[in-house]
Request: fold
Amino acid sequence: MVAVASAVLGGSLLTASGAPFDDAFARQHGAHLSARFDATATTERALARTARTTGIEAASGPFRTVSATPRTEEGQELSTLSVVGRATPGGTVDALALTEGRWAERPGEIVLSADGGIFPDLGGKLTFAALPGSPALTVVGVARSATRTADAWVLPAEVAALTAPHAAAGYQMLYRLTAADTAARVAEGRAAITARVPDGALTGAQSWLTVRKNAERDTALFVPFLVAFGVLGLVMSVLIVGHVVSGAVGAGQRRIGILKAVGFTPGQVVRAYVAQALIPAATGTVLGVVAGHLLVIPVLSEAADAYGTTPSGVAPLVDATVIPGALAAVALTAWAGAWRAGRLRTVDALALGHGPASARGRRAARLAARLPLPRPVGLGLARPFARPARAAAMATAVVFGTAAVTFAVGLGASLGEVSEARAHDTADVSIDPHAPPAGLPPAPDAGAEAKARAAADALATADPAALGAVIEKQPGTRAHYGQATGQATIDGVSGSTDVIAFDGDASWAGYAQVAGRWIRASGEAVVPAAFLTTTGAAIGDTVTLDHQGTPVEIRVVGTILETHNDGMEVFTDLSTFTRAGVDLTPTGHFIALRPGTDRTAYLDALNSCLAPLHLTAAPPVPANGGDQVVALNSLTALLTALLVAVAALGVLNGVLLDTRERARETGIHKALGMTPRQTLVTIVTSVVLTGLLGGALGVPLGVALHHVIVPAMGGSAGIGLPASVMDVYAPAGLILLVLGGLLIAVLGALLPATRTARGRTVVALRAE
Reply:
């Protein structure tokens, strides 16, 4: 049952990591083209007729649309939402999948997009204070659109209340095209639709290929990770099946001798044992499939959140593969074990079953007796040598369990390093008019935006030299820099490139160096690895940026860990642009304090000096680690716990078989005076060497897996990783992880050990 459940989980993870966006798009009948129209230039009837355009397979709409800016109950102003009026979540195109709550059923209710970046609790209210009457809507659900067609949905009648006077109203139409596999074919579909409506009616359109590209870029990070856990689950399931069945057949070798004594041929023995193994295996398979389906629900839900899709459930192919595969593995293992036992001489088979018969086991027991150890401990340490194959099977289960834990610990530490490197929040104080002080929401009064604009204007007009002098003369200032931003283009590269120019030494700003070095002089720049991939440049090359018609040459001296704007960013010194005649003004200043400086007192003193400049300094706002990191950590913890449980159950099976085989021997020990506590110690000690060996082998395997999967995850997402992301294992931590293998083995042995220790001596002596 456990093996089949693990196989269902592993197979489902592999299936889910195949093409998550395409699967979700097909299930939800995603829109190949999402088009928005001007309500003043066309009518609903005219838009409905576009569904009959040549090349259109299906269409949904028209839906009324509006853009509105809400505030939370705490007064925090959120980003502007694209709100669509839909009566139901279903439809022939872009069927929405509810992930939480329910659909809006009456006016005053709103359903948010799971991908919109707004996460108020269900039952919370969003107020649209800028609209007449300040309408307040209750969040009743969260839904997901495969092609991100809106930020929120309300009932159609609610759209009018969310439309400001004289605001531009619109309609949304969603189309599925007969051919949409290339950008050219999607453009043909858009042109055909445009020809059916008045000029200027189509105000915007979104291709599914654009959404797909963005989704695959975001989810590429997860594919190697889920593949690794999926393969681990499948490998462990095969090991568990082989371990259980071979152990069961091995434990019945004396009975096979009796069968041969009464006339069974080797072939009859094999058929009998294969049939005998398949009966409980069939039951376990059925139960395992049910358990696997239940287990997959939370795991695939986490994976769907990470992928930005909806849970798909277990694919029929997984069940169709796992069920016959598990039964075939049982039959094959039972056949091999029974055939080997069936070919034994009858007298040899009858002699088995009375305890360890091998010379290796006896020698190990004699050696353990000579060690200065308590007798129960010596007996336990010798037990694995009597059944080396069984001990090896248990050790293998511990190896994979320990490897999973080691990989999980390393992955969590690496993700923490990545989050810290992406945050760039090493500054102690910032002067940034667009960011509120840490822990405080934006001011709820109507003039908040005007105040922010005034502060930004004040910062833009402030003399950088004078501002720098004010900062430097403050006691406690260790370092500071200003930061200006802009955009540029590069010949042969589509889209724009973000420019971040530093006024001062920003080497301490928290940007993690991947290769090369940091900026030291004017004209030098560092870039993300994706920049080099896109432009075809390399470290040491010169790249020309076009800033509003002015060419600016930069020489790439290093790469850093950065993911914004698909990695199309350039970090350089402000003098690089000043020298080229481009005037970029710092829009933020960041300060590092000397150790031991009281930040509150420093802020009070600095703000007193900044008051004449109409500027305010504050602690920087902590950066958000990101939903992907949260999802990865949740998945890692859940999957690791499952694999550790499977490993412990593999040990439990081996110890249980061993205690049943040794029932008479245990009874003799008890009759000679062994106490229940000593019995418990003997059995638990029997897995100590197994656990330590499994841990010692599993930790290097987990480290190797980490060193393969983490770079693969970074490579899939186009992220270069610094050495700090990989060097996350400390020697003391590795020792603890090795002991984790021992812990897994002990946990697996406790149940049968406790049961045996509590057993009555007379029952044990009558075991045969």
Summary: The two ends are 29 Å apart (CA to CA). The mean pLDDT is 79. The longest strand covers residues 477-490.
